[in-house]
């Protein structure tokens, strides 16, 4: 059994927590006032602008943990671009700020409703995971497998850039009502 700490209790955090609990794993939700973080895996289920404050508040407690970045670094002022350099990613910024943690990028190409339903467009939902630590990717994949959700290793943490671009496209399509929040991209094997 793996313990999972989730920082953020919005729809994404709740959906991820439900999957982990369904698989028999221990789940705790962390708020900004918490000082202890018990999880082997810590999910940053917050908007990207909140991440810097979380790292400032909890950085030391995240050392030695697998930190899962689910953010899409949108420019919330325009909703028409990302706020990270074109050759970078939110995940790489987080990894640089947390050198004693293992950072993974995952869940940012999924909507909460598709995670909860375990389905997108009639196909099983798949979580894409990018990271430089194969053991950490296997650990997160096993948590998801316990709930009947498959994960695909999308490559090194460098692939977070492409995952964030895909997440950005999906979010803007949904915001423009070109796809629904229960839709999105599916990976058909």
From TrEMBL:
Query: Which first-to-last residue range defines the signal peptide?
Result: none
**Occurrences of domain Pyrroline-5-carboxylate reductase catalytic N-terminal (ranges):** 8-73
The family database entries (SUPFAM superfamilies) matched by this protein are listed as: NAD(P)-binding Rossmann-fold domains
Protein's UniProt name: Diguanylate cyclase
Ordered alphabetically, the record's keywords are: Oxidoreductase
Under Pfam families, the record lists: F420_oxidored
Can you tell which superkingdom this protein's organism belongs to? Answer: Bacteria
Q: Which GO terms describe its molecular function?
A: oxidoreductase activity
Entries under InterPro entries matching the protein: NAD(P)-bd_dom_sf (IPR036291), P5C_Rdtase_cat_N (IPR028939), STEAP_metalloreductase (IPR051267)
Claim: Lyase is one of the keywords in the record: no
The keyword Protein transport appears for this protein? no
